[in-house]
Amino acid sequence: MKTIRAVLVVTMVVASFGIAVAKLPPAPPMTDVQKAEAKAKADAAADLAKQQQAKAEDRVAAQYFANMKAQGKVVPTPQLAAAPAAPAAPVAPAKAAAPAKK
To answer: pLDDT 10s digit of each residue in the chain, 102 long?
Structure first.
């Protein structure tokens, strides 16, 4: 039994040492096309995550309202805030009056 344990320990040590010492060659630098593709893929994944989050929030809210209605409690529905108005374009300062000639 001690021999089996010793063999397992030695095997684990050798394997972990081999993994720690192993060195992979560095990845080649990305081209502009690859960078653009990676950015597009990341953007698409972010949009999908936003959509899934919104669906999950809607589902939870609907379940909450249904549970409160089943219990006979009145829950006021939240009013969505209007999107903030875009800031107005900066107004050019009025030109100073030209000095009057005599």
So the answer is: 788 899 999 999 988 877 876 766 778 999 999 999 999 999 999 999 999 999 999 999 999 999 999 999 888 877 766 666 666 666 666 565 556 665
Report whether 38 contacts 30 (CB < 8 A).
yes
Q: What is the 3-state secondary structure (H, E, C) of 7-48?
A: HHHHHHHHHHHHHHHCCCCCCCCCCHHHHHHHHHHHHHHHHH
Tokens of 11: 């095997």
**Alpha carbons 33 and 46: distance in angstroms, whole number:** 20
